[in-house]
Amino acid sequence: MKGLFITLEGGDGAGKSTQIRNIERFFAEKGLIVVHTREPGGTPISEKLRDILLDNHNSEMSPVTEMMIYAASRAQNVRENIIPALERGEVVICDRFVDSSVAYQAYGRGLGDMVSEVNKYATGGLSPDITFWLDIDPQAGRARAAKVGELDRLETEEMEFHYRVYEGYRKIAEGDPERVRRIDASESVDAIRDHIYECLEELCRSKGI
Asked: How far is CA 121 from the centre of its chain?
């Protein structure tokens, strides 16, 4: 496809939203059209599924149900939103993608390899050109997230769960260092931005942009 697909990953409170705005600015200054989406969500159908997933009242949701709903939301977003934008040659920035499912459901929920298998169908094999993992300790991330507003169903899980998720992200990054770039989220906003921009300039050179 002609466009660029960029994803941001990380635990709660990692600062993804701020850096997404910086990435949007980076590509806008190059005169490129940028599409920002999120997961779960990104389309009307996917946003309804997001509400189900994050609703604190749905505490009885089973891990397999959770995995399937995430995958369903992703399948709709990929086909309705992400792939058409990439085919138009646009830059797609997605707040979370398959890595989140692997970290949260495969590691956090203990579902293992089935998560990757299900998501092969959900994405049709689509993979990001580059992924930024904003690495933050789960305790520090929760403290940040709590300052922003009410915590959702996953954010209120016990810390043990969030440390399993963190371990999942660490293993993903170790296993795919070319795609996944670890960013120390404890650094200043400007330092994080500068590190991301360096990686994006490298990506643009490799793509002839």
From this structure: 18
Q: Indicate whether this model's pTM tops 0.90.
A: yes
Q: Where are the domains of the chain?
A: 4-207
Inter-residue contact 16 to 187 (CB < 8 Å): no
SS3 85: helix
Q: How far apart are CA 48 and CA 154, in angstroms?
A: 17
34 Ramachandran zone, left/alpha/beta (phi>0; psi -120 to 50): beta
For the domain bounded by 4-207, which CATH number is listed?
A: 3.40.50.300
Give the tens place of pLDDT for each residue, 98-149.
999 999 999 999 999 999 999 999 999 999 999 999 999 999 888 887 777 7
Of 8, 187, 183, residue with least CA distance to 92: 8
* Beta-carbon contacts of residue 194 (< 8 Å; ≥ 6 apart): none
Cβ density class 81-92: b for 16+ within 10 Å, e for less: bbbebbeeebbb
